[in-house]
Amino acid sequence: MDRVIRAAIEMAYGYNQPYDEDFGVAEVEESIPIWDDLTDDQKMKALDYVFKNDHGEDFGHSGCCKAIHQATAYYCVCLLKELDSGDHFDDLDFMMAESTRSNPEVQKLFGISQDF
User: Residue 33: is its pLDDT beyond 90?
Assistant: First the structure.
């Protein structure tokens, strides 16, 4: 299976764990046939199936899996594309101009190590 699809599945599975019935499964903007018609419980079961991949299926190829599982894998890739990368970092201090982040006062204020 394509490494990006595998990584997207792992990310989407983790992103939706633990499952919260009040919040539901994270949504994506793109309309996805089959996936959009599933209940949250069915979506979580499908996510669990593709995450475990007990049968070594290639979810990127329709001849190797069921439609529900390919739609689920596609959802995972869509979710990966839509997430803001900054959501996964405590901070993005590396994006500061070098002259700013090397300033001792700025380092102290933001908790930046001196050898950053």
Answer: yes
Please choose, from the candidates 12, 4, 64, the residue with its C-alpha nearest in 3D space to the C-alpha of residue 35: 12
CA distances from 70 to 42, 84, 87, 91, 95 (A): 14, 24, 26, 35, 37
Q: What is the rounded radius of gyration, in angstroms, for the C-alpha atoms of the chain?
A: 19
pLDDT tens per residue across span 5-29 = 999 999 999 999 988 888 899 999 9
pTM: 0.78
The mean pLDDT of the chain is 91
Q: How far apart, in whole angstroms, are the C-alpha atoms of residue 115 and residue 44?
A: 43
What does the chain come to in residues?
A: 116
